[in-house]
Amino acid sequence: MAILVTGGAGYIGSHMVHALVDRGETVIVLDDLSTGFDAVLPDPAQLVVGDIGDEALVGRLIGEFGIDAIAHFAGSIIVPESVSDPLKYYRNNTVNSRALLAAAVRGGVTSFLFSSTAPSTASRQRCRSTRRRRRRLSRPMAGRS
């Protein structure tokens, strides 16, 4: 099985890459290295520097390596930057992720793992829709009413 790991040079993605390589999987990493580092990758993993929104590139990788599964860790998460440049985050986390999914469907990828970029609540308690409870939501990503 060949697995494409997006954001695989980042903190969480690189841990997945190591686990997959340890299991003997063929791992292709697609990362733009905006926050990741190629030095964290194990030797058997192949790094392709590129953008998850580049459908042609993703399609080529799926075909060239016979990708069966995609593990998607390439979401943007820097909260202060997301507040100052929300369109950049919308583009990467929504538009580019959709392009990645479209390329996966076209390429016949049978498994897709999506990793969320952040938790939405501060605790495991049941969260009712009260003003007090809403304050417990992570800021500034929580909605306001």
TrEMBL record:
Residues 125-138 have a biased composition (Basic residues). InterPro entries: Epimerase_deHydtase, NAD(P)-bd_dom_sf. The keyword rRNA processing does not apply. Residues 123-145 are annotated as: Disordered. It comes from the Bacteria. Keywords: Isomerase. Transmembrane segments: none annotated. GO terms for biological process: galactose catabolic process via UDP-galactose, Leloir pathway. Residues 3-118 form the NAD-dependent epimerase/dehydratase domain. Belongs to the NAD(P)-dependent epimerase/dehydratase family. This is UDP-glucose 4-epimerase. The lineage of its organism: Bacteria, Pseudomonadati, Pseudomonadota, Alphaproteobacteria, Hyphomicrobiales.
